[in-house]
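Write out the 3D structure for:
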Amino acid sequence: MKVSSYAVARPVYSDRNSTSVLNTYSAVIGPHAQTQRWGVTLGAGRKATMEGAWLQVIRITAAAVVAQYNISLNVTSGATTAVVGTRDTWSNTTLVDFSLAIPINVTVYPGEMISVATLDGSTGGTVYYVGSGKITTYDA
């Protein structure tokens, strides 16, 4: 009788029924409360790895009263939200690019969500927002 042990390493995540998810939000809008622009929520038996993101804000027209405006990349687990990356400013100068490339490796677990949200607390004016991300989902 031959007895052996086959200790085989688990396949890397990209080989476990992986799916690529690309999300982008791009718009010129006026003042608004914190608003989620896109999100990916993981179902049971799935995990995800966020491989990179791009966040950008550009004031297009000046605000009458400037306040904070931003775009943020967030991970939510239960009732807790953590900001993974943000591009945040109070500038009222038009056509100045505030951008951030995020080469990250964040793992998101079943029931958690990764999302992009924008905020503009100013009075008047418009801001151009871009929030993009590349996510790979796979079997947990």
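DSSP finds no helices and nine strands in the chain.
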